[in-house]
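[Discussion] Sanity-checking designs against the backbone

I'm trying to build intuition for which residues belong where. Below is a C-alpha cell string of 299 positions. I'd appreciate it if someone posts a full sequence so I can compare it with mine line by line.
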C-alpha cells in the first residue's frame, strides 16, 4: 500500500468521523429543539401543548376545528390512539364532503395544513365565562352562533369587558412568545457559533491534511522521476550488455575460425613432416646404394 493510498484512506476515515459527529450533534440539537418548542408551546398555551389542547376539546369543538384546518401528520403522531382515530374519522368525513362538493361543482373552502395554522385555529377558541372551570374551561369559537347569543345576554358593557379580558389574557402569551423567540434566537446563535467553531476545526484539519497530501504527492513525483532515471540507466546497461554479448559472440566466432585455421596448419605441418621423413628415408637409401656402388667399383 502506497503512502497516497494510506493518506486517502485516512482522509476517508476522518471525513466519516466528522459526518457521524455532525449527524449526531444535529440529531441531539433536533431533540433539544423539539423539547424547547414543546416547552414553549406549553408556556404559550397555558401549560398545554398543541396536542394536549386538541385532546381537551369536545367533539363539537374538534369537528369545528377540522372544518377549518387539516391536522398535520406530525401532530397526529403526538395524539393518543383514541384521539387520533377520532381526528382521522372526522378528516375522512370532511374529505368525503369535499369530494362530494367538487363532484357537484360547488366551491370547496381552503383548509390550510400546517401546525401554525392549527394553532391559529385553536387560538380562535375563547373561554366561556358562563361555565368556567379551573382545570379545563369550556371554549367557544368566535364565529359560532352561540357567541351572538352570549353578546345579547352580557350586553354591550359585559361583552366589551369579555373582549378586554380576552385581550389582556393574550398579553402574557405575547410576552411568552417574545421570550420564546429571544431564547430561540439565543439558542440558534449558540448553535451557529458551535457550528462555526466545528467548521473552523474541520477546515484547519482539512488544510493540514491537504498540505500533507501535497507533500506526499511531491515525494511521489520525485520517486517516480528517480525510478524513471534508474530505468533509463538499466536500459542503457542492458544495451551495453547486449553489445558486449554480441562482441563476445563475434570473438568466439573468430576464435573458432582461428582454431580451424590452426588445425589446418597443424595438419599441413604433420603432412610435411611425414613427407620430410619419407624424403629422408629415400635419401638414406640412395646414399647407402651410392656408397655400395662406390665400394664395388673400387674393388
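Best answer:
Here's mine. Compare freely.
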Amino acid at each position: 500500500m502506497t503512502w497516497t493510498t494510506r493518506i486517502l484512506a485516512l482522509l476517508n476515515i476522518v471525513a466519516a468521523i466528522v459526518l457521524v459527529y455532525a449527524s449526531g450533534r444535529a440529531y441531539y440539537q433536533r431533540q433539544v429543539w423539539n423539547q424547547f418548542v414543546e416547552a414553549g408551546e406549553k408556556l404559550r398555551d397555558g401549560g398545554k401543548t398543541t396536542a394536549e389542547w386538541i385532546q381537551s376539546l369536545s367533539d363539537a369543538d374538534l369537528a369545528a376545528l377540522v372544518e377549518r384546518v387539516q391536522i398535520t401528520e406530525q401532530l397526529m403522531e403526538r395524539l393518543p390512539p383514541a384521539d387520533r382515530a377520532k381526528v382521522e374519522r372526522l378528516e375522512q368525513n370532511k374529505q368525503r364532503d369535499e369530494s362530494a362538493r367538487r363532484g357537484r361543482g360547488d366551491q370547496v373552502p381552503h383548509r390550510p395544513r400546517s401546525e401554525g395554522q392549527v394553532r391559529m385555529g385553536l387560538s380562535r377558541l375563547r373561554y366561556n365565562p358562563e361555565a368556567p372551570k379551573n382545570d379545563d374551561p369550556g371554549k367557544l369559537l368566535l364565529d359560532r352562533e352561540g357567541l351572538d347569543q352570549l353578546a345579547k345576554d352580557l350586553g354591550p358593557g359585559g361583552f366589551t369587558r369579555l373582549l378586554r379580558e380576552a385581550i389582556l389574557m393574550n398579553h402574557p402569551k405575547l410576552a411568552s412568545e417574545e421570550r420564546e423567540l429571544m431564547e430561540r434566537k439565543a439558542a440558534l446563535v449558540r448553535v451557529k457559533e458551535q457550528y462555526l467553531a466545528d467548521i473552523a476545526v474541520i477546515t484547519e484539519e482539512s488544510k493540514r491534511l491537504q498540505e500533507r497530501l501535497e507533500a506526499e504527492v511531491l515525494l511521489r513525483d520525485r520517486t517516480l522521476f528517480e525510478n524513471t532515471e534508474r530505468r533509463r540507466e538499466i536500459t542503457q546497461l542492458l544495451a551495453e550488455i547486449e553489445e558486449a554479448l554480441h562482441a563476445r559472440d563475434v570473438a568466439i566466432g573468430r576464435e573458432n575460425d582461428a582454431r580451424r585455421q590452426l588445425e589446418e596448419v597443424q595438419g599441413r605441418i604433420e603432412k610435411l613432416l611425414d613427407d620430410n621423413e619419407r624424403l629422408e628415408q629415400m635419401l638414406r637409401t640412395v646414399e647407402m646404394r651410392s656408397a655400395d656402388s662406390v665400394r664395388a667399383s673400387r674393388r
